[in-house]
Amino acid sequence: MASIDTAAIGFSIAIVAIGVGFAFYMSGVQDAGPVSTSPTMAAEKAMAAEKAMAAEKAMAAEKAMAAEKAMAAEKAMAAEKAMAAEKKVGPTTHTVDIPVGTSVPGCEESNECYLPADITINAGDTVNWINIDTAAHTVTGGSPADGPSGVFDSSLVMASAEYAFTFNDAGNYDYFCMVHPWMVGSVTVN
Ligand SMILES: [Cu+2]
Q1: Ligand 1 center–CA 128 separation, angstroms
Q2: How far apart are CA 114 and CA 26, in angstroms?
Q3: Helix (H), strand (E) at residue 87
């Protein structure tokens, strides 16, 4: 009989234990209610952090681009300065060829009796004519119609010979070949 009592007591204790456990479980579920909002807050925080990082990254990228732009601009300015410095280096010599075959008419049709036939230079620059033809030619200031201007005249430039003249005054200088009057050219001095 005593064993049945023990079993009954044990059963009762077990039921009470389950009841208490259930109560605890319910309170836990109820407690979980307000806590359940924290995951959304955490997600919001994570999103905000991501946004902040993205903004930082964008700013860093912008800064890098601005720095690159500034460097490119500096380089361009330096290049321009170098070019300006080169220009200021002083008088230069320009080459004009007297082409092969100009002793017979034809070159005037394409304005190639001197190459280049028209050249623009700065005051103080020199033009050096090189006769690469087999015939002799002249580089004579003026025009076939008006004759020599007297400003410059190479007289006969033999095959493979050269003639140079320095133009110190601005202006437009026509010239021609006294041997072959179809040969004309011009020098524009700025
Ligand atoms: Cu000639």
Answers
A1: 16
A2: 108
A3: helix 38-87
The percent of residues above 90 in pLDDT, for the chain, comes to: 57
Q: Kindly list the averaged pLDDT for each block of 10 residues, start to end, along the chain of length 190.
A: 50 47 48 58 86 90 90 86 72 98 98 98 98 98 98 98 98 98 98
- Do residues 158 and 138 lie in contact, with contact meaning Cβ atoms separated by under 8 Å? no
C-alpha to C-alpha distances, 180 to 19, 102, 117, nearest whole angstrom: 129, 8, 15
Rounded to two decimals, the pTM is 0.56
Query: What separation in Å is there between the alpha carbon of 135 and the centre of ligand 1?
Result: 7
Rounded to the nearest angstrom, the distance between the alpha carbon of 7 and the centre of ligand 1 is 140
Which residue is listed with tokens 């700013």? 59
CB 132, CB 142: distance < 8 Å? no
* d(C-alpha 185, C-alpha 173), whole Å: 9
